[in-house]
Design a protein that fits this description.
- This protein has 196 residues and is an alpha+beta fold.
- It contains 5 helices and 8 strands.
- It folds into 2 domains: 153 residues, no CATH class; 33 residues, no CATH class.
- It has a 6-stranded antiparallel β-sheet. Strands 4-5 form a two-stranded antiparallel ribbon.
- β4 and β5 form a beta hairpin.
- The longest helix is centred in the C-terminal third of the chain and has 18 residues.
Length: 196
């Protein structure tokens, strides 16, 4: 049946996890393939305050010298993790941790930047999943995910063309006299004669 997510999180700090012991080469290669930027990460982790489990942060070096003409608009550029933590996979229907599942480190990689005029933001470029037991990586490219979603939406619209409501509603509307309407009400709801 599995344990509750809350119960499993109590055990998360007992999971031997050291981000500095993980081979980040596949993650770095995937980022470089997607962005063309050469990244080197500094990694840190800490116990989540008020929660059980690990908060994990990766942050690259300053990348402004690699972004060409965009450096005129962006003061600082780096790649970092967002929403990165260690957990055990959960069944989304029962909200119970899947029994026997490996702990996973997952998060998003984002392109973070600060403008010359102030203000900062970020844009997600991929999601990652690292299985702590098998030491394997999985990546979900944000651009490809959006393109796949748009294609599925187009495929759905081709299979299910939108209804031309102007024609369908116009054909349903016909002029009905008060007498016909009154007769229909009396026939369908004789106890509602007072409506007429």
């Amino acid at each position: 049946m599995g344990v509750s997510y809350k119960e499993a999180f109590k055990e998360m700090n007992d999971i031997p996890f050291d981000v500095n012991q993980i081979d980040l080469t596949p993650l770095v290669a995937e980022i470089e393939k997607l962005t063309g930027l050469h990244v080197e990460f500094k990694a840190s982790q800490r116990e989540q305050e008020g929660k059980d489990g690990w908060y994990v942060q990766l942050e690259s070096q300053e990348l402004t010298d690699q972004i060409g003409p965009f450096a005129t608009a962006l003061r600082h550029v780096w790649i970092t993790t967002f929403n990165s933590s260690v957990y055990r996979p959960e069944d989304w229907e029962t909200h119970r941790v899947i029994e026997g599942s490996s702990p996973v480190w997952s998060g998003n990689i984002q392109f973070s930047y600060e403008h010359w005029g102030g203000g900062s933001n970020g844009a997600k470029i991929l999601s990652f999943f690292y299985d702590l037991e098998t030491k394997t990586w999985q990546f979900l490219n944000e651009k490809q995910r959006r393109l796949d979603y748009e294609q599925r939406h187009l495929d759905y619209e081709q299979r299910n063309p939108p209804i031309d409501r102007s024609k369908s509603q116009a054909s349903l509307l016909k002029k009905v006299s008060y007498r016909e309407l009154k007769a229909d009400i009396e026939r369908l709801a004789p106890s509602h004669k007072q409506l007429c």
